[in-house]
Design a protein that fits this description.
single chain; alpha+beta; 7-stranded antiparallel β-sheet; 7 strands; about 25% strand
Length: about 140
Amino acid sequence: MPYQPSRKATLLIPSGSGGKPEGKHLHVILTDACKDDLHLFGSIASIYPDQFHDPTCIIKAGEHKFIKHDSYFVYRRLVTVGGNHLTVCVDGWVYLKNDPITDALYNHICDGIDKSEFTPRGIISYWTKNKPKPPK
């Protein structure tokens, strides 16, 4: 059965360099597919001393099993990605499925989309139109 992208799902995407070729970054799908089959998609990065990070959404080590160090959500790199692209990459073993994020972590990340000064304007517009509707 082909991979079906969904909100709160996480994927490990190769990000290795010469010093660490097996490196992977945790990415999160923040929306279900819109009418154009796009998903809002972003990454989490480790916090390093003396390096800038966006303080809008700090994620503590252990909030997700893959996160071993205090990290942050990288709002400046939010993008929309086609569902078919995600399916092809997962089914082709380029992207690896990982455990979904919790509701609490999902809400923490989503709360920062409108708050971070680094979220691209086009992404804020997409989020406004496509964020999940609150339960009735």
